[in-house]
Amino acid sequence: MPSAVRYENATKRYGDSTTAAVDRLNLEVAAGEICVLVGPSGCGKTTAMRLVNRTVELSEGDVLIGGESVRERDPARLRRETGYVIQQIGLFPHRTIAENVGTVPQLLGWKKDRIAARTTELLELVGLDPELGERYPAQLSGGQQQRVGVARALAADPLVMLMDEPFGAIDPINRERLQNEFLRLQAEIGKTVLFVTHDIDEAIKMGDRIAVMREGGRVAQYATPAELLMAPANEFVEDFVGADRALKRLALMRVSDISLWEAPLAHVGQATAEVREKLRGAEVPYPLLVDAERRPLGWLSERDLALETVPARPGSPLGPLLDLDDVMRDALADLLQGEAQYAAVADRGGRIAGVLSVEIISEFLASPAAKTEEHGAVERPK
Amino acid sequence: MILAAVGEVGEGFFKERTSETLPCQAKSTHLFCFDWAKENIDSFATPAQQHVEIVAISVVAGFAIAFALALVAHRRRWLQPPLLAATGVIYTVPSLALFFILLPVTGLGRDTVIVALSAYTLQVIYRNVTTGLANVPSAAKEAARGMGMSERQILWRVELPLAVPEIVAGLRIATVSTVALATFAVFINAGGLGTKIYGSGNLTFPTSIVIAGGLAMAIAFAFDLILLAVQRRVTPWRRAAQA
Q: Domain of A320: which CATH number?
């Protein structure tokens, strides 16, 4: 059972310094949600996160996990119930992968076979071959090590997961993959996660809610990613989110969220006159050849249309084939990379669902819903 | 037989090797005399055994003290520089001088040698344990702490296992140099292979020195191999990392 986390005037001062690293922080993280703490370096986001497992001790105020104050808890026990993933991963080089994953269960005194069963289950959960359990961390790639780090944090089914820039040291391609994997995993396990990053794009991608923090550990805005992009609460957030907010919103949408063009369809052997009729008034200038299952095969060219019937081999290749589940930003990237003005979109079964064009996207970006200059006046998208 | 050799040492010492036919006891300039070696090899058993005992006890005692000091200094960082300085000062005292300083306290015999030789091992073992602990990746310690290990658990389950290679490296240096230093035990009647090197007349009769020296090297080599084997046994992860 995940627990909600609540900061109540949580304050951290180091030594006798007058300025606080975290100053009267109030934040409510709902159970089962990913809350991203994002901000420039030195804003106190990591300190704020570490107040939860008491690796940093509160000076004033309180942090409640499931309504229970962390001050009342024994730090060691509290930490065993709190998953913890750090950027440098911190796997124990002298212990096998299985021993690393079993660290907290071992501290909790589980029986050997229970630990072994749990380890296998977790390695599978994070997408690793359980056979890797016998290896040592140095024998694994950075991405694999990070997966082990996540598995180790999940070992004793923690109430809360703390993740401190978990993918920060991973190359961009693997980072993207690990982010997606973690989101898929989270959909399955539904933990309450506090996730620290300095990367706003990662925050937007990972967060159910984002707390943009500024120096002194104060929250400049706490909102959903969409709200943050459409209605930054102040100049600080606006600057931090960046000038390309509209483009960033594409990262929050899927192709299925936008209305697509209808594709004029053609079947092999069909009379071209019939097909040409369909083109009239259509937004797409060329017909799309599909098979009997309505799966796209390619675009018909002028020369194809000059024939009597539709040929089996279309004159123009299909180009990029998008998916209704694709994130809009990726879809736009595919279009640009394929040097295409438009591309076919397929549903889960591979059947044609419509056509996405650069024009649709630019119209969307220019529409009031995407205009983010006059904040406050904008409605949330559905 | 040794006495016979000693008697003739005087004249033969600087002479050139002239004849191969003479019994070699008389020819001290012979580097090695197989006949003599064959007849006297048994007399090396006791000194060798004493030697091994002196080295083993000294290194174990030195390790116990240095290890304890290093652990104390690991908790209380401010103790590190003075402890390093103190063990360093001991290390600079010439070994024979240290024996004679200790004589009034521990008397003639093995105790004095063991106290002195353990004292010499402190510096290198202490320093290596300290560096070994200091070189443990901070991420591993942070993760251990974040998962709810106590300071003691972090020390015994994470820091010390990871410091083993450096600790064993220190032990190996200390052991090899102790094997060499233990030959001085003869000067305070504590036996060891030194009796066959510095013992009466031996200095002018190379065969005995060669055998004793060879045995000392073999002992050092054997200790080193044992320590290396122990290290490989307890750090399988290091080989995995290199593979």
A: 3.10.580.10
